[in-house]
Specification:
20% helix, 3-stranded mixed beta sheet, 4 helices, 14 strands, single chain, globular, alpha+beta, 167 residues
Length: 167
């Protein structure tokens, strides 16, 4: 469904970013790192946002990259212990992150809408509807945004939070 086998895989660098993107980059640096001339500006929201044709959405704080959202069905994929975080069943991804935190001692946080975050990795799990199916959508977020209820609760949320039978 998500075509994970054909997607480019980006490395998660906790506290720094993913793939070629690093927190603190300017819009021009993000575009250059992605090899594009420009992004589509998105104006609705409490901060500057850009969407790129490759399935990457960037969020900026005072002109500096603060969050990277990956499309559930296209574009780069980020792996954690070999598990693809984008494009899976949201409950399966939620459970994977809980198991990961239990095994490695990660710090868990639930947002006010019920979304799960692993704060030490900078991963916030959201979902996205693709062709009528809900799929996992990871957001990679700089630490101070995850610590701020305002920022983490204003990051992309399409519809209801990921349903999880165990919560």
């Amino acid at each position: 469904m998500s075509g994970n086998e054909s997607r480019e895989h980006w490395e998660l660098i906790p506290g720094a970013g993913i793939g070629p993107l690093r927190y603190g980059m300017t819009s021009a640096e993000v575009a250059a790192a992605l090899g594009v001339s420009e992004a589509q500006k998105v104006t609705d929201g409490p901060y500057e946002q850009e969407e790129f044709a490759n399935g990457v959405q960037a969020f900026y704080d005072a002109g500096s990259l603060a969050c990277i959202a990956l499309n559930a069905a296209m574009g780069p994929q980020v792996l954690l212990e070999g598990f693809a975080l984008a494009g899976h069943d949201p409950e399966q991804t939620h459970q994977f992150l809980l198991d990961y935190a239990a095994e490695y001692g990660g710090c868990l946080l639930y947002t006010s809408d019920g979304s799960l975050a692993l704060t030490d990795l900078g991963v916030l799990l959201r979902s996205q509807e693709v062709d009528g199916v809900r799929m996992s959508r990871p957001l990679l977020v700089k630490e101070d945004w995850l610590e701020s209820e305002y920022y983490r609760d204003h990051l992309p949320l399409e519809g209801d939070p990921i349903p999880f039978a165990g919560s």
